[in-house]
Amino acid sequence: MTTNTVSAPAPRTPIQEFWHYFSSNKGAVAGLAFIVLICFMAVFADIVAPHSPSAQARDALLLPPAWLDGGSWSYLLGTDDVGRDIFSRLIYGARLSLSVGAFAVTISLVVGILLGLVAGYFKGVVDICIMRLVDIMLAMPSLLLAIAIVAILGPSIFNAALAISLVSLPNYVRLTRAATMTEMSRDYVTSSRVLGASPLRLMFVCILPNCLAPLIVQATLGFSSAILDMAALGFLGLGAQPPTPEWGSMLADALQFVQRAWWVVTFPGLMILITVLAFNLMGDGLRDALDPKLKQ
């Protein structure tokens, strides 16, 4: 007599478990696919773009998209008022927007983690000083504060990125501080302190790794906010300066043609919308995959 035994499924590795929960959110997978595509186009813009972003075709002013009457497949999404290819400018604009987003998120994340760890670990006067400064920054609308910073420093891509990183800082400080104070009450932190671990070791080796999950999600969502703020500053003329291809400045330059050349305004706006939506969807998927409470 034989007995059929059902073997237990092999345990998933951490990466497999992460992908299992992340891929269950179809919107997050779609967002990730678009982000990979836009990153590929941004990195290889010199190869992918059919034209130079600053090349002007005087015989093709305000040319409609290729599928409309009067359009040309040489200019897939049409041209602007000085004959520049919109598709090529969108690709090069993606390179600029993603670079600014990466710079702003990196600066605000690193500085925010440092300030949040210090405030949550030492508490007392240090915590009060840091958090009151954060409260002052949160008292002003982030875009208005960014405009004020760029107005003081002068309009440029670097100053705009620096302003965006500064206005994004409070989110990371508050999140890191809250996570640090939660972890400080854990037994493993108490044990490490009793064993003689230094404050730096406690903060960066014991506490910080256990605070990274919400910070990763916040950084992903902050990436979309940085792209949106950069487009807003560019629209106001405080970001990238002409003729640098940037989605916000492309919108500002095309406002006067919105009635008779809709494509000049529509495609940059769609790129901003879809890119921001993709990062938000991916951030939602990361939250599903990294939050233990949602796995139960």
Please characterize this protein's 3D structure.
This protein is mainly alpha-helical. It has one domain (24-48, 76-289): MetI-like fold. It has helices at residues 14-23, 26-43, 45-48, 86-122, 124-138, 142-153, 157-184, 187-194, 199-207, 212-235, 247-254, 262-290, 292-295. α4 runs parallel beside α7. The mean pLDDT is 87.
What would you say the CATH architecture is? Orthogonal Bundle
Low-confidence stretches: none
Number of helices: 13
- On the 0 to 100 scale, the average pLDDT is 87
Helix-strand makeup class: mainly alpha
Helix content: 55-70%
Counting DSSP E segments of at least 2 residues, the number of strands comes to 0
Global Rg: 24 Å
Shape: elongated
Proportion of residues in extended strands: under 5%
Examine the coordinates and then state which fold CATH places here, giving the name of the CATH topology.
MetI-like fold
> End-to-end distance, in Å?
40 Å
**CATH level 4 superfamily:** MetI-like
| Largest sheet data | none
Number of domains: 1
Query: What letter string, H or E per element, gives the SSE order?
Result: HHHHHHHHHHHHH
Q: Just give the CATH class.
A: Mainly Alpha
Main location: membrane
Membrane topology: Multi-pass membrane protein
Transmembrane segments: 28-49, 96-122, 142-173, 223-240, 261-282
Keywords: Cell inner membrane, Cell membrane, Membrane, Peptide transport, Protein transport, Transmembrane, Transmembrane helix, Transport
